[in-house]
Amino acid sequence: MSFIDIESFGITGFLVNFLFLVLIIAVGMLIVNKNRRLDELVRQRTDELEAFNQKLQDEVNKAVEKNRTQEKILMQQAKMAEIGSMVESIAHQWRQPLNILGLSMTKLNLNLELGINAQDTEKTIEIVEQQIQYMSQTIDDFRNFFKQDRVQTKVNINNIVGEIETLLGPLLANKNIEFIREIDPEITVLVYSNELKQVLINIVNNGREAIEHSKEQEKKIIVSCINDNDHCTISIEDTGGGVPLHIIDKIFDPYFTTKFKSQGTGIGLYMAKMIVEKHFLGKLSVYNTAKGACFELRLNHQSESAERRRK
User: Fold this and answer.
1) Residue closest to 112 by CA, chosen among 101, 125, 99, 100
2) Which of 158, 263, 267, 274 could be cross-linked to 259 through a Cys-Cys bond (beta carbons 3.0 to 4.6 Å apart)?
3) What is the CATH number of domain 152-311?
């Protein structure tokens, strides 16, 4: 009896061990199979994620390219709007020289008819040549303004503002607007020269238009500059009554304008802000004063230091 029990116990132990082994193998196969499915699922999800990332990258690239194209269009529109203002300014700058030329030519004809001495004729011809030279210089000034800068250069702020005064001065004088410069002649900053001129011309023209529509008796545009180790801040203040508070936060938005559609595109201040922030790494802001608005153009000298390190 004990022999049979021992033998039965041996068979039972074998079966238990066998079943346990089978269970381990089955569990292992299940684990392997599950891992395989997980690996396939991970690969599938990875492929889907990569495809999604690629699609997302393509969409981002398209959006970036669209923004670049839109910015180029806006820049071109801003240029075209400025050309209109420039043509008006040229007309005012040329009016007096053309009058002088007309009178001089009349005088020359009279000299020839009356046989007046050559000395007076030569003096009249000299006046004519001076006026022609002035008109030619005016064309060069406007042509240089529209040239595209390739590299940043260190410019003198007082000289830049002086060029703006040369371009717009006759138009401002015709509107009885006094243009005042309060700038240290030694201040310089590293910028794209013509882009800075574009920003300043746009802001000065906005000030001129505000003054034209204002009831303020005092008609002034004051350009000043504060310089320290970190920043060069150019302020353009006008006496045009200021910006209404309900729109002051919107005036830098694209296509926002308070003018009739025939008078403005609403892109000038937007492009000015883009130039200052993206190209100069600076800041353009506006606030109201007692008699008008003041635009502050804050240029960063740190970008100048970075430029020197790159060189």
Assistant:
1) 125
2) 263
3) 3.30.565.10
